[in-house]
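// run 5 | inverse folding | seed 20
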């Protein structure tokens, strides 16, 4: 049997590969089916894969009735709303640009933690936030920062991707 630490790394690598490939797969699928169909197919695949994993681990448990509204809201924001904006955005946005925008989620989480939870940032985290933000601006503007200042921010889909990535957390 594989060393458990090695297996953990393999699982993490697999997750990153699947996540990264999802942008390309969505872009290709959009040539044949609607963005709404993609959202439903992704949801169905997730239910099946996670359902099997939960069943095999013997971890299935229904949430308490008082939590159903909370989970419904999370499902709407994290799945329906986010995936709808992302799928629609990918109609005009590039898969690589979309991946870079979505990859900035940890930056946004750090900023929310600092603003709402009074978590410390320090100079290393602050530098990382600035560097990641500059990187996304470079990718989206294709190196032309002047285009951002005059309101020409990448493809129209880039705005949807940004909204879908960050409004979920607000």
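// decoded
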């Amino acid at each position: 049997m594989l060393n458990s630490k090695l297996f953990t790394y393999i699982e993490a690598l697999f997750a990153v590969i699947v996540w990264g490939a999802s942008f390309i797969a969505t872009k290709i699928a959009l040539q044949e089916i609607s963005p709404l169909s993609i959202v439903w197919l992704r949801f169905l695949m997730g239910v099946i894969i996670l359902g099997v994993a939960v069943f095999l681990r013997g971890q299935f448990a229904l949430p308490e009735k008082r939590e159903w509204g909370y989970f419904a809201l999370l499902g709407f924001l994290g799945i329906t709303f986010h995936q709808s904006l992302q799928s629609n955005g990918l109609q005009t946005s590039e898969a690589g640009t979309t991946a870079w925008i979505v990859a900035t989620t940890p930056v946004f989480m750090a900023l929310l933690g600092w603003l709402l939870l009074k978590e410390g940032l320090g100079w290393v985290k602050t530098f990382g936030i600035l560097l990641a933000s500059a990187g996304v601006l470079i990718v989206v503007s294709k190196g032309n920062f002047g285009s951002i200042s005059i309101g020409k921010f990448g493809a129209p889909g880039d705005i949807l991707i940004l909204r879908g990535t960050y409004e979920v957390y607000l």
